[in-house]
Amino acid sequence: IPALAMHFALRAATRFGMPPLVPTSDDLDLLVRYPWPGNVREVAAVMERAVILSDGHRLEVARALGPLPPPSPPPAASAPVAATSAQISAAGESSLRRLDAAMAGHIEAALARTHGRIEGEHGAALLLGINPHTLRARMRKLGVDWRRYRKEAGVRG
């Protein structure tokens, strides 16, 4: 962060026709403690704001950052932990389904619940939160037949 801050501060000063300004050690400390939500462009944007807000003698890093968000709470002991590849291998591949199979099963469950209806107020698309055309395309790709879930043959899906 310090190297990026220096680079972007000098670049912004040149861009805005201001004298070269570099962050102080307090500014750098603030930048290092900041929980960056974005990527490198976020650092560049903050340093540009610091140059714009400056009086020509000192960068305004604290004002450019705005109020610091509250620190996030430490993870709870009961929080799920990501499985390692060894744990996944130990569990065996039989317990994991392919994504396509899981998606097909989910769509079939929605179709069973809606009696094969795809769209409308009581349709599977609404239940799944996707566009009916997208659902039909995905069903074609996965080989899911909505007719298997119909109670009446004459009802259109």
Could you characterize the architecture of this molecule?
This protein has 157 residues and is mostly helical. Helices cover 51% and strands 0% of the residues. It has helices at residues 2-15, 25-33, 40-53, 61-65, 85-91, 99-113, 124-128, 132-142. Helix 1 packs across helix 3 (40-53). The mean pLDDT is 80.
Could you list some keywords that capture this structure?
157 residues, mainly alpha
Unreliable parts = none
Order of helices and strands: HHHHHHHH
CA radius of gyration: 28 Å
Specify the helix fraction band. Answer: 40-55%
- The assembly state of the depicted protein chains is single chain
Number of helices: 8
Overall average residue pLDDT: 80
User: Approximately how much beta-strand content do the residues carry?
Assistant: under 5%
Shape: rod-shaped
Instruction: Work out the number of β strands.
Output: 0
Give the helix/strand class: mainly alpha
Distance between the termini: 56 Å
Main pleated sheet: none
Summarize the structure.
The protein is mainly α. It contains 8 helices and no strands.
Which SSEs are present, and which pair or pack?
Elements: H1 2-15, H2 25-33, H3 40-53, H4 61-65, H5 85-91, H6 99-113, H7 124-128, H8 132-142
Helix pairs in contact: 1-3
